[in-house]
Structure formats: structure tokens, C-alpha cells
Amino acid sequence: MLSEQQAGVRPRLLPDVLSLVELQRSGVPHTDDTLKYRYRLENGRYVFPACRATVLALYDGQALVPEVSEAQRCGVILDRTCFYSEQGGQSHDQGYLIRGGLEDVLYSVEAVIRAGGYVVHQVTVPDLLKTGDQVQLHLNEAHRLSCMVKHTATHILNFALRKVLGPSVQQRGSHISADHLRFDFSVKGSLSSSQLQQVETCVNEIISANMVVHSSEVPLQKARTIQGLRTVDEIYPDPVRVVSFEVPVSELLDGGSVRETSVELCCGTHLLQTSAIEDLVIISEKQLVKGISRIIAVTGQDAVQ
């Protein structure tokens, strides 16, 4: 096996257990990352919130430090962030930080990772950075929007597979990046080209219907009572985020809707309406092992091409 360095992948600067305990002992609050969900549609364009934050802690790969010098890699923990940290199969956001008073110096964010309630922004520092510094966060909006498109498309694909192949289809894993989506699911054999076409047709009908995507935080036990809820085999937070299409989550909780729709527990960032996906094309489907298949799909202009 290649090490991360040999493979050209930079090792992640994730605070160790001792550093996490030290953060808690020092009274450093968990990162408020609720801004990652606070975007809106305005005249057909997605508007993402501005975010200013304070540096609460710095991790140099060995320990928590009060400051880091030029060209040093570190993990930056802020009081708040609008960046999405890698979780739920979705890639982390990209972007940069600007330190107060240094508007022309960009602190590029290489990765965003969660560790014990803290969101860690991995940065190679172009200039001195110390705890207490004020920073402004700048999100790569095109990258985020591409991830939102792929994540919403993944939920639709999950729904379409179940509709075409029957209720025995279960999600076994997924990965969402800006350029494609990967979806693993249980199935008895490889899909025929006719079945794949039916799945694509079902997905694209939902896309063109421009369905509203609803999301709401719900107590975990209450969420589990929703009829038709899709989950994967993992530990969910409490309360948990529920994402549904066309039918509001409140209506599903009341049991007042008998409409068949996509509804899943999901911490990802989603579109507010499905039409922005434009199109979905399955570019490959193969059996990983007996009973588990993997689909790779593209959306938008990549799908058109």
C-alpha cells in the first residue's frame, strides 16, 4: 500500500484526542456551522451568506499552538463557518480565508474536516496567523452548487432505483463530488440496458417537474416514524436532518400524505428545486461484489455531452 505522502496526498491535520480534550477543557465551543444551510434562491440564482469569524484554535499537526508562521500547514478552528465539512458521502467545500487587514493575502482552504464537534479548516498559511485573529470566509460557490446538484440527484436516483427495481433495493454507500456522483446499492444482478433507461427516465421526469426540496431538523425517534423513509446503516445525530421532495417534512410527520416521494435522513447540502440538475446520465453500472452494484452518473452539461 502507498502511504499518503507517496501517493501525493497531503496527510490531514486532524486534532488528536488529547488536543480535542484540551479544547474542551479550555472552554472552546463547538463550531457553529449552521450557515452552510442558509442559502436562498433569488431571481433564479443561489445566494450564499457572508461569514466573518474568529480564530479560536490552531493545530500544527502535533499540538494546539497560539500562532503559526508563514508557509506552515495547520488546522484552523473558528467560532463559526459557512463551509461544509466532508461527511455523509459529500465532498468538503472549497474556498479561502482573508485575515482582517490583509485583504490581498488569501489563505486557501485545502480541506474541511469534522473532529469531535469542531470544524477544522486545513490551510497552508501565507502569512502569520494567530488565535484571536478575525477572518472573512469566501466560499467557492460554483463548487458548492455542483455538489448540491449531485447530492440532490443522488436522492432522486435512490428513489428511481427503488421505483424501477422494487423495495428490496437498499443504499450501500455513496460519494458526491463536484464532477460526478457514485451510488452503491443492493441488487440481485447487473441491470439491463432497459432497466437503466427506465431509471434515467424516472430521474429526469422528477428533474423536469422542478420539485421543491424540503429539509427540516427533527428528533431522531420522530423521524423514524415517517413512512417510506430511506436510511443507511450508520449512526445519526439527534435531532436529525430530514430531506424530502415536493411533500413538506411536517406533512410527512403528521402522516397526512400518502404520496410516494423521496424522503431520507441526510446532513448534506441540497438544491431548493430540482430543475437546476438539468439532466442526469448514468455513465457506468457494474457489480462490485455479488449482490452490490455501483452506478456512476453525471449531471448538467456533462450529461448533455
TrEMBL record:
It comes from the Eukaryota. Coiled coil: none annotated. SUPFAM superfamilies: ThrRS/AlaRS common domain, Translation proteins. Pfam families: tRNA-synt_2c, tRNA_SAD. Residues 1-305 form the Alanyl-transfer RNA synthetases family profile domain. Keywords: Aminoacyl-tRNA synthetase, ATP-binding, Ligase, Nucleotide-binding, Protein biosynthesis, RNA-binding, tRNA-binding. The keyword NADP does not apply. The keyword Amino-acid biosynthesis does not apply. Belongs to the class-II aminoacyl-tRNA synthetase family. Alax-L subfamily. This is Alanyl-transfer RNA synthetases family profile domain-containing protein. The lineage of its organism: Eukaryota, Metazoa, Chordata, Craniata, Vertebrata.
